Amino acid sequence: MTGPKGGYYKAELGEPHKFDPTFRGPVHNRGCTDVLCCVIFVIVILGYIVLGTVAWMHGDARKVVYPTDSYGQFCGQQGTPNANKAILFYFNILQCANPTVLINLQCPTTQLCVSKCPDRFATYIDMQLNYRRNKSYWDYYKQFCKPSFDNPDKSVSLVLQDEDCPSMIVPSRPFLQRCFPDFITRNGTLTVANKTSFKDGHGKTRSVVDLRDAAKQERTVLSGKVTAMQQGTESGITSLLDAKEVGVKIFEDYASSWFWILIGLVISMLVSLIFILLLRFTAGVLFWMVIFGVIVAVGYGIWHCYWEYSSLKGKPSSDITISDIGFQTDFRVYLQLTQTWLIFMISLAVIEAIIILVLIFLRNRVRIAIALLKEGSKAIGCLMSTLFYPIITFLLLALCIAYWAVTAVFLASSGDAVYKVMSTRPDCKYTNLTCDPKTFSQSNVTKLCPASQCTFAFYGGESLYHRYIFVLQLCNLLVFLWLVNFTIALGQCTLAGAFASYYWALRKPEDIPPSPLASSFGRALRYHTGSLAFGALILSIVQFIRIILEYLDHKLKGAHNAFTRFLLCCLKCCFWCLEHFIKFMNRNAYIMISIYGKNFCASARDAFFLLMRNVMRVAVLDKVTDFLLFLGKLLISGSVGVLAFFFFTRQIPVIQEEVPSLNYYWVPLLTVIFGSYMIAHGFFNVYAMCVDTLFLCFLLDLEKNDGSATRPYYMASSLRAILNKKNKRPEEKKKRRKQKKEQPNKRH
């Protein structure tokens, strides 16, 4: 509603905004906003740098990269005695089936670095019996014994008591740089080296199922620190080991086809660019063609349902209701009932009616949405540099992710080696107590708990820093989310400022200011770092809570408390909705910040009220934009994927000889399809930001201006035509004034 002094009122919501005759797009004379949040943000970044430095000083990435044996030594590290021994070997992997493994996260058996895993079944007893006839038995077996041990004549009982050598070895293959039994399922029977049983070196015959259980338990320790173990996969280890060979072939395929993959991605980039530029001509055609296709398809569905209904009518047993036959696993039974087709027909008829009614009553809003999409294509054509801004966002995000990952690794590897007493006897009271491996053999523990040992458990410490490692990891995660969301917010505000400069130019492209993208980026960083950080912080806190809820839900999956699971499910749903609402509001708040230069809260409030006054236009534009952009992504990735398929399968005769020899043609094919989709997604994100910015500017234009010479509409002529709006020319205004002056003279 127009105000008395050239201002305008925000209908029923919000406060009135007076008309500013000097407004010509993004305000240049602006001040810093949300300074306090900016200061806090800078302090947090400095603290984050300090945290990373402290983690780097205390941590050691080798603890994550290399396996650690029972003596705290790294396997495979260059410059150490274990340089050529990169694989961890378990003396008695059957001990890993002990329940204490899941409590202490450590297998209670000696762990040794070896150069290769054993490839045969053998026991120390068999070796001792055979090595006198053939020294090769001992030469092979001793590589799995302690390096200091070289006495094969030592009694078996003493060797096993001192754990100088393993009591047995089984055919194994490396998995995660650790030796695990080489399981193979033959005709549904689990085997190791074609055997279903073996000798354990203590005079007993064991089943390979025992090995499987022990291997699963230890895999839980390895992966359970991060994720739960995959259940019910006896051949899972074998499958993952075979993946190594597949990985080598995949690497070879990438090495021979990377050039053609790159060409495919360049083609997808060009196609995405052309698609966006052509939307000014094709947006309406694409939309109405698809809508017409949907109407025709639904209409055909109605006819087909009626035809099936008529065909079945009168047949015996077709008049039975669905409730009479109840639930059937064979759904073809329901297709023999007239009631089924009647329900289908009525449902499709209702859907058809809704589509037609929506198009009839919202046709003008759909036309506005299509016109804005076309205008967005023109804006992209004038500001081509905006399409490449996501590269800056990508580099900043890569920097944030790399810093977070490195900091997390160094925090996780902080501390010194901690050794604990490991015993297979449940009555040992010293189990899980810290110990010193240098003095352990002289302590009373070995006497009170025979066969116990002091083995490496984890890395840690007793200092204040080490006690709060988990808290520091949480801080690392929260700041990481804040930085990521700030980077995205900076990109959105920058693009919004550039596209707002385009919209508020009365003559396009003559009145567009020079370097709009660079100017917008400078304004966003110089004046609105605090506002962007404020919005990013709100979103980051919600995301942080969601991550914690997901973690709790993962931990409580086995719980039988139905109320707890229900409560967690409700909380997850609520915070998911809250996160998406905040993302939507932040996006529009950043657009208002880029235009008016107000603080975050004021911009969010103005954007919210503006959208609420035009809620139907918002809904229609959002759905039309999402639909066309999704269709565009499918068309681009699909067309480039089809082209890549014909190329890599040698079905294009002209360039058939240029196709590289591949192990798996689907490797470069899937890479091209996925890469094409991501490139299209990046281009269309810029386009979506453009359309959203132009839409808010369009709504502001409608409320601020009336088409007069002093307050002309800045919208495109196509939008004015849809709304029956016109800009009055100054000559027309002067002519009208002259006519008014002449009218009194004629009367006299």
Largest sheet composition: 2 strands, antiparallel
Structural class: mainly alpha
Continuous helix count: 22
Mean of the pLDDT scores?
A: 80
Beta-strand fraction estimate: 5-15%
What's the total number of strands? 12
Share of residues in helices: 55-70%
Instruction: Name the shape in a single word.
Output: globular
Could you tell me the radius of gyration in angstroms? Answer: 36 Å
Low-confidence stretches: 1-19, 100-105, 223-241
Sequence of strands across the biggest β-sheet: 1-2
Could you tell me how far the N terminus lies from the C terminus, measured between alpha carbons in angstroms?
39 Å
Provide a brief overview of the structure.
By secondary structure, the protein is mainly alpha-helical. The chain is 60% helix and 7% strand. Residues 1-19, 100-105 and 223-241 have low confidence and may be disordered.
Write structural notes for this entry:
It is a single chain. The chain has 748 residues and is mainly alpha-helical. Among the domains are: 27-59 and 465-613, no CATH class; 259-387 and 616-704, no CATH class; 416-460, no CATH class. The chain is 60% helix and 7% strand. It has 22 helices and twelve strands. It has a two-stranded antiparallel ribbon. A two-stranded antiparallel sheet has the order 3-4. A two-stranded antiparallel sheet has the order 5-6. Helix 8 packs across helix 20, helix 11 (363-382) runs antiparallel to helix 21 and helix 16 (516-555) packs antiparallel against helix 17. It is globular. The chain starts with 34 loop residues before the first helix and ends with a helix. Residues 1-19, 100-105 and 223-241 have low confidence and may be disordered.
